[in-house]
Design goal:
The protein is an all-alpha fold and 458 residues long. It has helices spanning 9-27, 34-54, 70-94, 100-119, 123-141, 147-178, 183-189, 195-213, 221-228, 231-237, 240-256, 264-283, 289-309, 317-342, 353-356, 358-372, 378-392, 396-417, 432-450, 452-457, and strands spanning 60-62, 66-68. 75% of the residues lie in helices and 1% in strands. Strands 1-2 form a two-stranded antiparallel ribbon. The radius of gyration is 21 Å and the shape is globular. The relative contact order is 0.09.
C-alpha cells in the first residue's frame, strides 16, 4: 500500500495534541494545568495551518476511506477554527478544576471524530467516526456534575446510543444489498438492489448524522444540553459536531446512493422542512437565551439540510452547503461567546448591553442579525446560495418553506436584540477571553459576507 500519512496531517496534529495534553495532565500540578489548554490550542493551530496548505492541493483519497477534497477542506478548517474558539471560551471556566486537562482533551477528541465524519467515504469508518465524535461529547455535557448537567448528559447519551444503533442497522443492511461499504461500491451496487431495502437502509443510516446535526427526529437533546451543560460546552456541541454531520449527509446523498435512490430529495427535503419549522416555532416562547439559541440551531439545521436534499441535483448544492456551514459555525460560536462572556442566561439580563459594553453588544447584534440572513453577514450569502440550490434542484416548495421560516425567525431574534438598546440595571463585567472570541466571530461573519465572492471563487 502506497499511502502518505501526511495526507492526514491536520487530523494527526489534533491527535498528537490530545495525547500530549493527557500526558501533561498526568504530571502537572492541579494549579498549573492551564498549560494543557496552550498545548491543545497549539495543536489546533498547527492543524489549521496544515489544512490550509492541503486545500491548495489536488483532491485525493487516502487509505481508500478518506476523501481529501473541498468538502474535507471546509470541514477541517471550520472544525479546527471553532474548536480553537471553544477551547478559549472554556479556558477561564475550567481553570483550577481537578479535571481541567481532560476537558480540553475531550474537546479535541470530539473535534477529531467530527473531522473524520466529514471526510469518510466508507460506512465502517463513518460508524467509527460517529462514536469518536459522540462519546467525548457525552462526557463534556455532564462535566459540571450538577443536576442539570447530569440530566442533559443522560438524555444526550441515550438519544445518541439509540440512533447510533439504528445507524449501525442501516450500515448492515446497505452492506448486505450493496455488497460493500465503500461509497463508490455502494453507488454502483445499490442500483440493482431492491428499492425497499435501499430505502430502509438509507433511512436507518441517516439516524446517526441527523442526531449529530440536531435535526428532526434526533433533535430532542439539543435544548437540554444547551441549557444544562457548561456554557462553553453548549457552544461546542451545538456548533462543531454539526459541521461533520452535514458533510457526511451530503456525501451519503451525492456519493453513496444512486441518483434518486430512496427518494432522497423528498426524504431529505421533508426532514429539512420539519426541522426548520419546529426549531423556529419552538424558539418563540423561550426566555432563556441558551434554549433560544438551541432552538435556533435546530432551525438553522433545517436550512442547512436544503442543499443536502439537492445533493447531486445541481451545481449550487455543494458550495451552498459548504459556505453556509462555515457561516453558521462562526455565527453560532459568536452568539454563545457573548453568553459565556456575560454569564447571563435570561433575556432580561441583556437589557442595555449595547450602552454599557458597545463592542460586545454590537457583536451579539451582528450574530443575531446574521442568523436571520441580514446583509452583509456570512449567513446572508449562505441563505442566498441555499435558495438558489433549492430552485436549481426544482424544489420550489422547499424554497417557499425556507422563506417563510426565515421571516418567522425575525421575531424571536428581535426579542433579544431590542432589549440591548435599553438602559442597563447595572454594569456589565464581561470576561475578556470570551468577549474577544465574540468580537472575532462577529468580524469573521462580516468578512465572510463581504468577501464571499473571493471565497466562492476558490
Amino acid at each position: 500500500m502506497n499511502e502518505n500519512p501526511a495526507d492526514l496531517a491536520p487530523e494527526l496534529c489534533v491527535l498528537l495534541a490530545a495525547a500530549l495534553g493527557l500526558v501533561h495532565g498526568l504530571f502537572l500540578p492541579r494549579d498549573r494545568q492551564g498549560r494543557v489548554a496552550v498545548t491543545c490550542a497549539a495543536g489546533l493551530a498547527a492543524g489549521f495551518a496544515a489544512a490550509a496548505v492541503a486545500a491548495s492541493r489536488p483532491a485525493l483519497t487516502a487509505f481508500d476511506a478518506f476523501a481529501v477534497d473541498p468538502i474535507t477542506h471546509v470541514t477541517r478548517l471550520a472544525v479546527l477554527g471553532t474548536t480553537l474558539g471553544a477551547v478559549a471560551l472554556a479556558a477561564g471556566g475550567v481553570r483550577g478544576h481537578p479535571r481541567e486537562s481532560e476537558h480540553h482533551v475531550l474537546m479535541l477528541l470530539a473535534a477529531l471524530g467530527t473531522m473524520l465524519l466529514g471526510a469518510s467515504t466508507d460506512l465502517l469508518v463513518l460508524a467509527a467516526a460517529y462514536l469518536l465524535a459522540s462519546v467525548p461529547a457525552y462526557a463534556l455535557a455532564g462535566f459540571g456534575r450538577d443536576a442539570p448537567g447530569t440530566e442533559a448528559a443522560l438524555k444526550y447519551y441515550l438519544m445518541g446510543a439509540l440512533l447510533g444503533v439504528a445507524m449501525l442497522g442501516g450500515v448492515t443492511l446497505l452492506y448486505g444489498v450493496g455488497r460493500g461499504t465503500s461509497y463508490a461500491v455502494l453507488q454502483e451496487g445499490l442500483g440493482a438492489a431492491p428499492a425497499a431495502a435501499v430505502a430502509a437502509g438509507a433511512v436507518a443510516l441517516l439516524a446517526g448524522p441527523l442526531f449529530k446535526a440536531g435535526a428532526v427526529p434526533g433533535h430532542f437533546w439539543v435544548p437540554d444540553v444547551a441549557e444544562g451543560a457548561p456554557r462553553a460546552v453548549a457552544a461546542f456541541v451545538t456548533t462543531v459536531p454539526k459541521i461533520g454531520a452535514f458533510a457526511a449527509l451530503y456525501r451519503i446523498g451525492a456519493q453513496a446512493l444512486p441518483p434518486g435512490a430512496a427518494g432522497w430529495p423528498a426524504l431529505a427535503g421533508t426532514v429539512a422542512a420539519a426541522t426548520m419549522t419546529l426549531g423556529n416555532l419552538a424558539a418563540f416562547g423561550q426566555d432563556n437565551v441558551r434554549r433560544l439559541l438551541a432552538y435556533s440551531t435546530i432551525g438553522q439545521a433545517g436550512f442547512l439540510l436544503v442543499p443536502v436534499a439537492m445533493a447531486g441535483r445541481g451545481d449550487l448544492a455543494r458550495p451552498a452547503l459548504l459556505f453556509y456551514v462555515a457561516a453558521y459555525a462562526v455565527t453560532n460560536l459568536g452568539a454563545f461567546a457573548v453568553v459565556v462572556a456575560t454569564g447571563r442566561d435570561e433575556l432580561s439580563g441583556y437589557t442595555g448591553l449595547l450602552r454599557d459594553a458597545p463592542l460586545l453588544g454590537g457583536s451579539l447584534t451582528v450574530c443575531l442579525l446574521g442568523f436571520v440572513g441580514t446583509p452583509p453577514t456570512a449567513v446572508f450569502v449562505g441563505k442566498v446560495l441555499m435558495f438558489g440550490a433549492a430552485l436549481d434542484g426544482g424544489q420550489v416548495w422547499l424554497a417557499v418553506v425556507a422563506a417563510l421560516n426565515t421571516v418567522a425567525s425575525v421575531f424571536y431574534y428581535l426579542r433579544w436584540i431590542v432589549p440591548l438598546f435599553g438602559r442597563p440595571d447595572g454594569p456589565f463585567r464581561p470576561a475578556r477571553g470570551p468577549a474577544a472570541v465574540a468580537v472575532t466571530a462577529a468580524a469573521l461573519s462580516l468578512a465572510l459576507g463581504t468577501g464571499a465572492g473571493a471565497v466562492l471563487a476558490r
